[in-house]
Amino acid sequence: MQIRARRFAIAACAAVLLPTAAGCVKLGSDQPPIVLPTLTSRPTASPSPQTKTDDQVLADSRNAIVRIEGVDCAGTYSTGSGFFFQPGFVVTAYHVVKEQQAPAVRTLSTRAGDEHVFAAQVVGHNDAADIAVLRLDDVGAESLTIADADPAVNTSVFSIGYPGGLPINLETGRVTGVDQDAVVSDGDDRRPLSGAVRFTAAPGAGTSGGPLLDATGATVGLVDTGTAADQIHFAVPATLVKKIAEAAAASPEDRSAKGCEPPDENSLVEVESSQPDAPGIATTVRAYVEGINAGNQVVDRKSGETGFEQAYRQLSGSRLTKYPTLQKFIGAHRQQISDVHITSVSYVDDTSDKVRLRYDYVNDGQSSCRTRSMEYAMSIATGAWTFADQKVLDTKSC
Q1: Structural domain total, the chain
Q2: Which of 133, 149, 174, 205 has the greatest CB tally within 10 Å of its CB?
């Protein structure tokens, strides 16, 4: 299993004002264009007085800020952040959801409403501006206000999101530039980011798509990318975020990533649950089972990691208490597992789900097949889904 909270390298042109003129941006290939304002003429707000403390900014905004997760067709699990700008609609960075199949949006349990995990559709996006709008079936009332003007240089700002998929976090900083031009590198891919807000609040990987707030709690940008080493970070300006987000919400149309090839009929793990977290949890289950089956064989040539080491990485909580060393884990898991079914997934709290599995297994040195039904407590407190606790429900002959 690969887990990714994207990290980027930046080539910044800090002293260069954006030279481009007004252009047209389409939310989809068949939608009418949205005419953007000339970026150098955007209204700029005067610095706002410090009306809230860091804790107040976080407390007043946290229920509108979401964790986004998904799996692409290669089986890579990734996380990001986003926020409600109106009920039922979330805005995030497009690179967060561009390749994700059926992204899942998770809200905090303190948010109004009975449901806290939602399947989301991409209903508008702008690749050049790196903005995406998601629609989900949500009745909560908490949303952030997007400012009508961009922040002035030296304005105090707060970057809030889920770094590496971890619990929500706030970083403080200041605006150091507006109308900035940068080139973002993501692996072998490079893309320009124009007219951006440059700031010093250090967002971690996984906070992309989260809000950049001022001291009044207004959203003055959408966190896009940055490098912690040199304290250069960029956000899409609020004026552009508002224009694209409101246009997509007014005329939503499903523009989610295209579906993957049908799964192999002999796939090791079959997902029967339609709960939005199930695809992400399945990547952990698959890594765990494939690791046990590989045993002491090397499964990652680059790192030299063995199958047992891969499986052991999927544990947390009481599972690690029971197996405090890799050798203890290996001694209890010398077996071959097959025909794994994720039969149900249910929400528990902000960082955990309950999962039921059924699988066949044969212990090393034996020939008799057994079928076991299990209930696991799965946790994302460490950033990715892990096996935190377990209970055997039933064991019988195959």
Answers
A1: 2
A2: 133
256 falls within a domain: no
Q: Are residues 175 and 300 part of one domain?
A: no
Q: What is the pLDDT of residues 142-194, one digit of tens each?
A: 999 999 998 999 999 999 999 888 889 999 999 999 998 877 766 566 777 88
* 341/372 Cα distance (integer angstroms): 11
Per-residue pLDDT reduced to its tens digit, 58-70: 999 999 999 999 9
Specify whether the CB–CB gap between 364 and 335 falls below 8 A: yes
118 and 232 inside one domain: yes
16 half-sphere exposure, CB direction, 13 A CA radius: 12
**Whether 180 contacts 195, CB under 8 Å:** yes
Q: How many CA atoms lie within 13 A of 365 on its CB side?
A: 2
DSSP string, 327-393: HHHHHH--EEEEEEEEEEEEEEETTEEEEEEEEEEEETT----EEEEEEEEEE-TTSS-EEEEEEEE
Q: How far is CA 155 from CA 9, 18, 159, 289, 314, in A?
A: 25, 20, 13, 50, 42
How far is the C-alpha of 363 from the C-alpha of 370, rounded, in Å? 9
Q: How many residues are there in the chain?
A: 398
Among residues 362, 308, 355, 301, the alpha carbon closest in space to that of 331 is found at: 308
